[in-house]
Amino acid sequence: MSETAYIALGSNVGDRAAHFQAALRGLSATPGVRLSACSSLYETSAVGPEQPDYLNAVVMAQVELEPAALLERLRELERAAGRVRRERWGPRTLDLDLLLYGERVLDEPGLTVPHVELHRRRFVLEPLVEVAPWALHPLLAQTMDELLRHLPPGGVHRFAAPPPLP
Fold it and tell me: Active site includes 121?
């Protein structure tokens, strides 16, 4: 039985859009993962140390993998894009975060679903609302659209149309 998962994509090093395309191809090639929608690309200033602006997007996927297996696949795709984890909130070729996995709530070492910062991050909520405004935060009992309306405006702008799904 498949579940709907939402995955955030971020990049601020190198050819950001190319990193996204490679991640989409990698996810599409993963058995048990079927991409069903991708948001537009959004640009935002980086959080943390001074660094280039980020591109962000969110994909919706129907998945048959368990959350831990999906997270491991996301880490594999990050490594394939050359990501090295050096400093918290540092520059990244590719950052893939599991935001939601159906209505599951998980708090395990290395895996927290829903993503702990989801409701505080406009750069995640704007693209997520584009693909699934009705998606429900299982702990806060609010839709993504409702959560976005609670955040102050600004800081995120639409950069490009949604990339084609492979």
Answer: no
